[in-house]
Amino acid sequence: VLLSIRTTISMVFRKLPGVSASGMGLRLSQKFVFLLFLSGLVTLCFGALFFLPDSVRLKRIFLSKTESQPVTVGSDNDLRDHLKKGAKDMEHLRGITSAKGETSTKLKSLSRKPSITNEAKADEKVVGGEALEDLTMSRSKTESSSKDEKVTSSSNQRANTDTSFDYNKFKKCLLKPPLGIEHGKSSHPQTLHRRDKVKEMMKFAWDNYKSFAWGKNELRPLTKNGHIGNMFGGLRGASIVDSLDTLYIMGLIDEYNDAKEWVETSLDLNSNGEASLFEVNIRYVGGLLSAYYLTGEEMFKRKVLELGEKLLPAFNTPTGIPRGVINLGSGTSWSWGWASAGSSILAEFGTLHLEFVHLSELSNNPIYTEKVMNIRRLLNKIEKPHGLYPNFLSPVSGNWVQHHVSIGGLGDSFYEYLIKSYLMSDKTDEEAKNMYYSALEAIEANLVQKSPGGLTYMAEWRGGILDHKMGHLACFSGGMVGIGADDGAPEKRQHFLDLAAEITHTCHESYTTKLGPEAFRFDGGAEATATRLSDRYYILRPEVIESYMYMWRLTHDPKYREWGWEAVEALEQHCRVEAGFSGIRDVYAQTVSHDNMQQSFFLSETLKYLYLLFSDDDLLPLEDWVFNTEAHPLPVIQNNTTTLAGPLFLGLC
Ligand code: DMJ
């Protein structure tokens, strides 16, 4: 390069009067000018290296490896330095957020009260769960390629090579048989009849999926074809993987065997598409893990470990907070185009813990646990406004990007995974426990409201301003507060049980037509009703029924079974069509309009929770099992023998 520069300059000088053709013939002053130019050029070239994307090979040659490695939050000092540095980035990021980011056509605008702060205004668009599912994965400015980057933990040396996990020993560690004495069959005829009905619904949903959409991600029950979407990259068969455990616990064994065979022969993990890390984790990783733990089929374990390894490059960010989207083939990851300033979403990076701990269990490789513990530590140490966790965090600076807090979409399952991490650790993960109860205290102090009509709800928080709405997604929180009631301060047990019951009651109130809207409000005279047309859809979501199931297990109050049965009847009446179940566009409309989509979570969650609601408590007993956010049961790690260095279930229970 230098030679050619020199030749070019010689040619330039050659054209100047009085300058010889050879560079050697340059006068001293000309040589000086030449050297000055050259050194400027070299400086410019090296400087430019710093602005190249991480993926450019040249950069990796010149820069030391550690510069692009994730920061593992180790000591307080590390974190403080890191955060101080992040504060500068933050100013820059705030600038970006004030401009309108890329958004999907399906994103919904939020009309705002004029008093909302500038910071909150930056949050021009939010997504509900359903919008997330169809978002175009437009890239933000923060894309990074991890294709050739090695996963940097030393523990990676042992990645997925040790298959010493002993399934039989694990089974002996369980306190009770997973399927109970008689598969949870109730001796009460009406309950049994209701459970049989739910099983029939599952078979109907499954059979139609099999007939019209086999191997695709979801069934379109009106048009009788399959839907692939863009959430899972090139992965296919989301409904199959999501259904494995439901089919198994319902005793639909032929159907389970078909599903298993498809996973074995046709689930291709060598896809090159762009996937949501969160969705792949909760549905595919969660589904395969549960299938393995319930059945002991080694094939599920092999598949899930193969898939888990493909998710690791998403963590190669300066903070170790993963980005939301990953190309499973190349390992390149980036943030959602709609997320402000290239931020990562709390409910996404905060909903990996349960599955990743189990990936470490099965692989005997601590790297997965290390990744999620790093997220945990950063979140634990970062300053939180009023103790609340905002929904957007920069994976570069490790700082919050906006102050929008929600127990519904964008935040929800982060809180769920805190308490469930504690429960899954056999109640030994004190850090998770403390973070959960502190978060709940902040939620109670800032978000929990009572409506004029006496309904308890969890409002959303936008930089100090309350938005008096609750999403359907937030209705999982009745169950969450309920399962955590036993482990907080003893004097608060009844308080938590009451809060759980009140929230579940409010969510039931939102089901005025026996199915509830996507979001309901408590302002302008509204009492748990959707005031906007755009909030009136129901896409077969599980959260309200999920809370009924937990509240039934916790209290055995028969009203929860009655409420569940109301939902069954409404699903049959409004959502069942000729070839499956479909979401509906307006829960208040007299004439039903279907959305032509049988979501995979209907099979995984809604029908499973209904089935459990009408089963005895010994079917998947809560002493042994924790449900991931997609309702895939994962075993409690008894006596928590886990360390970052070793496995658990090797006969140590
Ligand atoms: C599911 O995929 C999971 O429950 C997730 O946590 C959010 N919501 C959908 C179903 O509504």
UniProtKB/TrEMBL annotation:
Major location category of this protein: membrane
Biased composition (Basic and acidic residues): 140-151
Pathway membership: Protein modification; protein glycosylation
Catalytic activity, EC: 3.2.1.-
GO biological process, one term: carbohydrate metabolic process
UniProt-annotated catalytic positions: E279 (proton donor), D412, E518 (proton donor), E543
Highest taxon of the lineage: Eukaryota
Protein family (similarity comment): Belongs to the glycosyl hydrolase 47 family.
Protein's recorded name: alpha-1,2-Mannosidase
UniProt lineage: Eukaryota, Metazoa, Chordata, Craniata, Vertebrata
